[in-house]
Amino acid sequence: MNERKGIVTMKGNPVTLVGTEVKVGDAAPDCIALDNDLNPVRLSSYIGKICVISCVPSLDTPVCDLETKVFNQEASRLSENVIILTVSMDLPFAQKRWCAAEGVDRVQTLSDHRDASFGTSFGVLIKELRLLARAVFVVDQEGTIQYVQIVSEITNEPNYEEIWGALKGLS
Known about the structure:
By secondary structure, the chain is an alpha+beta fold. The protein has a single domain (3-168), classed as Glutaredoxin, CATH 3.40.30. Helix content is 23%, strand content 31%. It has helices at residues 62-75, 92-102, 117-122, 160-168, and strands spanning 3-10, 13-18, 32-34, 40-42, 50-55, 82-88, 107-111, 125-126, 131-132, 135-139, 145-150. A 5-stranded mixed β-sheet has the order 7-6-5-10-11. A 4-stranded antiparallel β-sheet has the order 1-2-8-9. A two-stranded antiparallel sheet has the order 3-4. Strand 10 (135-139) and strand 11 (145-150) form a beta hairpin. The chain starts with a strand and ends with a helix.
């Protein structure tokens, strides 16, 4: 398994990312995560839609909470052809509880806790913590990665303006 160091830090401390690095122009890996009802979901099931994939360490942390709420709010302004997914290592039950408590109903949460399939396929699994790094990927209707943002300090939010700019070019 590939390991990359020096890409991201957690509170200033370097961590190791495990998995295959994906780049713009690559086909999005067809990994499997679990929905809130424990059903396996293949990323390829979203072919035909533009996917914004936000991966976060845990919804129960302040920055992940805020980020997911920003995406939920923005989802109402996007084309119906755009779906926003938030992937974390949180258990599906915790994701479902969090979404209900926070009124998040436009973002679909997926759990990578079982196999870390998403984390290793997209190269964002943190070896030391078995959490996902903060990153955003935009995948077009054909399943090609059109935008990648790996946030260098996990405790920071992503650059939303760059993400919205990437979407405008696709929709």
